[in-house]
Amino acid sequence: MSTVDALSSSSTKTSSASNAFGALNSEQFVKIIFSELSNQDPLQPSDSKALLQELSTLRSIQSDMDLSSKLTDLVGQNEWTTASSLIGKDISGISDGLERVEGTVRSVSRTADGAMLNLTSGVRVPVASVDEVLGGSNARGTTP
Question: I need a surface site. Which of 41, 90, 95, 124 has the fewest CB within 10 A?
Fold first, then answer.
């Protein structure tokens, strides 16, 4: 268990360091490099390649985190679109009260847990808990 705790601690430190690094603009980045180079001991110079490699690694980590965040947003938008397309359809699934339900989707709500289908019966079903789309009424009130 201590290995897992150590890994979590390490990833948290890297995450906060990469967030701080991501906020730097190019002028601040150059200032850090020049500051590092001007403050080093001339008889034992630092390895500037190692410094640049470390900064590059931090930039890469920040880029990966930004990409992950954008993908999460994209998945959320896709879920919202899917939920909206179910309005007027009969569905079957597990309600937010953990009961098996069937009903017609009246509307869709955006919640912290994702898109929520509001059934005509008043029951709410998370989109992720829908296991069957049974059909439903179209605009003329007939079943396809």
Answer: 41
